[in-house]
Specification:
The complex is a heterodimer of chains A (117) and B (109). Chain A is 0% helix and 54% strand. Chain A has 117 residues and is mostly beta strands. By secondary structure, chain B is mainly beta. Helices cover 0% and strands 57% of the residues of chain B. In chain B, the strands form two sheets. In chain B, strands 2, 4, 5, 9, 10 and 11 form a six-stranded mixed sheet that branches. In chain B, strands 1-3-8-7-6 form a five-stranded antiparallel sheet, with no helix packed on it. In chain B, strand 4 (32-37) and strand 5 form a beta hairpin. Chain B is globular and about 40 Å long. The chains are: A mainly beta (117), B mainly beta (109).
Chain lengths: 117, 109
């Protein structure tokens, strides 16, 4: 099956610094990538949707200047959390959609656990 | 608005059968997915239904009734490793996934 990788798997950073998370589709071309955030004991919350080569579409309440998304190629999307604060500590998960499949399945990366101290 | 409902938590016994229900109201319908998520891990794909009926895959089966806006995930011969959250998600007319809050399944010996 299709594989999506994320890097790093976990990161600890100080308040005020920026953190970049990479999401790669390893064996397929991801025309669309999704970024989710999940707080403990809660369901996935979609943050933004990005299509290769165009600006990301952010969900209501998600600050686009704080969560910078770049989807420069069909296999790589990055999420940069700028000026991170403790409340940004969460589990960030990317997923990629293979537009060539019969049912446009979304494949999930393993997630990145961000802790802001 | 769009809404996906599933029970918050269920408990079952090892070796038994459990059915997790999901009802939905969405803007259009282009398939329903079930995902399994263990604590601290990303979701993993379990099943996909786009037509009415039952899809069976080993110990797991998923059922869909589009007219009723209803699906269930059936887990047979429960094992301790099945303890996880089970997420129901519907793909709407824009091909976006609308997620349920998940059902935490607790398996007891």
């Amino acid at each position: 099956g299709a594989v999506v990788s994320q890097h790093p798997s976990w990161v600890i950073c100080k308040s005020g610094t920026s953190v970049k998370i990479e999401c790669r589709s390893l064996d397929f071309q991801a025309t669309t990538m999704f970024w989710y955030r999940q707080f403990p004991k809660q369901s996935l919350m979609l943050m933004a949707t990005s299509n290769e080569g165009s600006k990301a579409t952010y969900e209501q309440g998600v600050e686009k200047d704080k969560f910078l998304i770049n989807h420069a190629s069909l296999t790589l999307s990055t999420l940069t959390v700028t000026s991170a604060h403790p409340e940004d500590s969460s589990f960030y998960i990317c997923s990629a959609r293979d537009g060539t499949g019969d049912h446009y399945e979304q494949y999930f990366g393993p997630g990145t656990r961000l802790t802001v101290t | 608005g769009q809404n996906i409902d599933q029970p918050t938590e269920m408990t079952a016994t090892e070796g038994a059968i459990v059915q997790i229900n999901c009802t939905y109201q969405t803007s259009g319908f282009n398939g329903l997915f079930w995902y399994q998520q263990h604590a601290g891990e990303a979701p993993t794909f379990l099943s996909y239904n786009v037509l009415d009926g039952l899809e069976e895959k080993g110990r797991f089966s998923s059922f869909l009734s589009r007219s009723k806006g209803y699906s269930y995930l059936l887990l047979k011969e429960l094992q301790m490793k099945d303890s996880a959250s089970y997420l129901c998600a519907v793909r709407d007319s824009n091909y976006q996934l609308i997620w349920g809050a998940g059902t935490k399944l607790i398996i007891k010996p």
